[in-house]
């Protein structure tokens, strides 16, 4: 599928994932639960390169999220890095709106929540990649995944860690409101087109 139809998108918050995290979960568990395919070797390969991966900032990730999840662009023509950036922003939205279901089982451990957010961004990339028409392009998918984890790491610093490049999610919301950056409160377009092989 080269381009997703606008009919496959809807407004609103991301739905609650069809999996239930446990308190002992690490990043690899979140990846396995949310990914199109929970390829553990792929997970290890990408995470092993995370320190050298290049991501973008919050605003650029939000820009690509709006264009991709809003059905405004042809996914087959986008750079892998742009797809990864959009996936990272969707992971942020899952954190923002579904924190109680997805992240609170980890308690108040910021480092574990950071690991989970990064893993969800990585997993979301594997789902988006199925709509690029390049499903067999393993190098492109790896580039997208590396961009996703690097961007998610930057977003995590902004929204999770007060005093480390950001001011925490609650203070971030007080400053900017509950907007996703598209001029609508609580109204970012969210991709929920899932193939038959994806979890509900």
Q: What's the helix-strand series?
A: EHHHHHHHE
Tally of discrete structural domains: 1
Number of helices: 7
Distance between the termini: 20 Å
The strands making up the biggest β-sheet line up spatially as 1-2
| Largest beta-sheet characterization | 2 strands, antiparallel
Rg result: 15 Å
Mean pLDDT: 82
Strand content: under 5%
Helix content: 40-55%
| Class by SSE composition | mainly alpha
Give the strand tally.
2
| C-alpha geometry | globular
Region (Disordered): 166-200
Question: How would you explain this protein's 3D organization?
Answer:
The chain has 200 residues and is mostly helical. It has one domain. 52% of the residues lie in helices and 2% in strands. It has helices at residues 27-34, 40-48, 58-69, 80-102, 110-129, 138-160, 169-176; strands at residues 9-10, 190-191. A two-stranded antiparallel sheet has the order 1-2. α4 packs across α5 (110-129), α4 (80-102) packs across α6 (138-160) and α5 packs antiparallel against α6 (138-160). The longest helix has 23 residues, at 80-102. The chain is globular, with a radius of gyration of 15 Å. Mean pLDDT is 82; it is low at 1-11, 171-176 and 181-200. Residues 166-200 are annotated as: Disordered.
Task: Give descriptors for this structure.
52% helix, disordered C terminus, single chain, mainly alpha, 7 helices, 200 residues
Topology:
Blueprint: E1 9-10, H1 27-34, H2 40-48, H3 58-69, H4 80-102, H5 110-129, H6 138-160, H7 169-176, E2 190-191
Antiparallel strand pairs: 1-2
Helix pairs in contact: 1-5, 3-4, 4-5, 4-6, 5-6
């Amino acid at each position: 599928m080269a381009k997703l139809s606008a009919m496959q998108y809807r407004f609103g918050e991301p739905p609650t994932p069809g999996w239930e995290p446990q308190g002992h979960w690490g990043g690899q568990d979140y990846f396995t639960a949310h990914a199109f395919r929970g390829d553990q070797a792929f997970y290890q390969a990408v995470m092993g390169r995370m320190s050298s991966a290049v991501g973008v900032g919050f605003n650029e990730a939000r820009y690509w999220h709006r264009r991709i999840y809003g059905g405004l662009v042809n996914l087959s023509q986008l750079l892998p890095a742009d797809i990864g950036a959009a996936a990272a922003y969707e992971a942020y939205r899952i954190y923002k709106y579904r924190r109680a279901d997805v992240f609170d089982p980890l308690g108040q451990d910021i480092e574990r929540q950071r690991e989970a957010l990064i893993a969800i961004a990585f997993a979301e990339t594997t789902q988006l990649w199925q709509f690029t028409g390049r499903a067999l392009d393993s190098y492109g998918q790896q580039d997208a995944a590396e961009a996703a984890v690097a961007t998610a790491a930057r977003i995590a610093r902004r929204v999770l860690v007060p005093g480390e490049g950001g001011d925490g999610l609650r203070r971030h919301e007080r400053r900017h409101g509950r907007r996703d950056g598209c001029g609508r409160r609580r109204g970012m377009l969210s991709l929920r087109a899932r193939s038959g092989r994806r979890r509900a």
